[in-house]
Amino acid sequence: MKEDLGNPSSTPLGAAKLPEAAARTTQGILHDAPDNQPDPQEPPRVGVWFIVVYMLTYYGFNLTMLTPTLFSVAYKVQLIDPGARDASLGIILGLGGLVGLVAGPVFGVLSDATRLKWGRRRPWLAGGAIFAAVGGVIIALAPVVPVALAGFAVLQLGISAMSAGFNPVLAERVPSYQRGRVGALGGASASLAGISAYLLGSQLTGSIVMLFLLPVAVFALALVLFFVTVKDSPAPKEARAQSIRTIFASFVFNPAKYPDFAWVWLGKALLQFGFTFFSTYQLYFMLSRLGYTADEAAGLIAIVGGLSVFATMSFAILSGFLSDKLRRRKPFIYTASALIAAGLVTAAIAPNFIVFAIGGTMLAAGTGAFTSVDLAMATQLLPEKDKAGKYMAIYYLSSSIPGTLAPLAAPFILAIGAGSNYPLLFLFGAVLALGAMLTTWRIKSVR
């Protein structure tokens, strides 16, 4: 089955109106269109081949995005600046992340107006992969922290371009009654990519260039399949690129006017802060608190990753499918938030690797459950259905903003007490994760 973005009868990525049924609710009950009575406003039901290609591409994208932030940059900093690693890692991930934070919205809007013959999405996907590869090589060969920072900034430009070409897929190509399922599978593939980042790290510490390049190569291979399967076409003639000022002004929305979407955004941001604290500094926790070397820690984190694969995928798929079947989202978000908080607390007080592994597995299970259901819920609550690209970009800022600010804030928390206070950092993240339960409770139009 090939998806033809040039077919006027289909819903092109980022161009046509998002189906209104994507966010429609009645008394808080989600509409689940029967197979024999399709909603004419919905995109057509997607098949197995579309889902497989979506999962593979999403996996490659997340592997490229997560490997540097979860392991490879921390490992590189440990090699070139071990004495000031906490602050140096925060500076690289925080300041470099600001580049992606600014570029993401700009690229998202520009991709909607791209009128190249090759298509509107393909140039951003391919160009992003090239920039990501270049940035990875710069980091791998960097002799000092400032050079690594420059490389991470280039990498972030690439990831932002890739996001602009891929992020609107679920909101505009998948009917609302399949979004929980497809979102669950996508969330599982994203979680698997995170686990794979640690597995790669444990195997490639002796080849630093390959550690940074292999994730991009995986995405490039998946991208070939995506290009063959999903055709693309130029943006409509009436589409116009906006000025930088207009672009950022267009991303401002009134939370009072769209409170449910605002609460979804805030809840994800709170959880992302907690997860980022853990994912950024877990390697250093094992070095400092549990006494392992960097290579030993990489292998043990890979073991935690192996344990987490089953938990992540099981909870992601189960939560997504059950949330569709039961027509409920919020109970699954509550459960996921509690699991994430409990995992962070367990890791914070871990006296040995076994307890740390239990905490990491609980965190992975909660993350899997949250990712699939929250994404499906967000697509149902998009404020303006004909501006899906804009609002999905705003939604993803709930990940990128904490991903940028958390590393910058972490060194200040770590400095409390005797310094390198990783348990306090994880406990602070647990409190934020519990805050997501409150934001979800405030949502009115979804049960």
Please, how many domains? 1
Percent strand equals under 5%
Question: Please, what is the oligomeric state?
Answer: single chain
**Assigned CATH superfamily:** MFS general substrate transporter like domains
Largest sheet: 2 strands, parallel
Question: How many helices does DSSP assign?
Answer: 14
Task: Classify the fold: give the CATH topology.
Answer: Growth Hormone, Chain: A
Q: Label the structural class.
A: mainly alpha
Distance between the termini: 34 Å
Proportion of helical residues: over 70%
From the alpha-carbon coordinates, what is the Rg to the nearest angstrom? Answer: 21 Å
Report the mean per-residue pLDDT as an integer.
80
- The CATH class, by name, is Mainly Alpha
Task: Name the shape in a single word.
Answer: globular
By DSSP, the count of extended strands is: 4
Helix and strand arrangement:
Elements: E1 3-4, E2 25-26, E3 29-30, H1 48-80, H2 85-112, H3 122-141, H4 145-166, H5 169-173, H6 176-204, H7 208-229, E4 230-231, H8 244-250, H9 259-288, H10 294-326, H11 330-348, H12 353-380, H13 388-414, H14 422-441
Helix pairs in contact: 1-2, 1-3, 1-4, 1-6, 1-7, 1-9, 2-4, 2-13, 3-4, 3-7, 6-7, 6-10, 6-12, 9-10, 9-11, 9-12, 9-13, 9-14, 10-12, 11-12, 11-14
How would you describe the overall organization of this protein?
With 447 residues, the protein is mainly alpha-helical. The protein has a single domain, classed as MFS general substrate transporter like domains (Growth Hormone, Chain: A), CATH 1.20.1250. 72% of the residues lie in helices and 2% in strands. It contains 14 helices and four strands. The strands form two sheets. The protein has a two-stranded parallel ribbon. It has a two-stranded antiparallel sheet with strand order 2-3. Strand 2 and strand 3 form a beta hairpin. The longest helix is centred in the N-terminal third of the chain and has 33 residues. The N terminus is likely disordered.
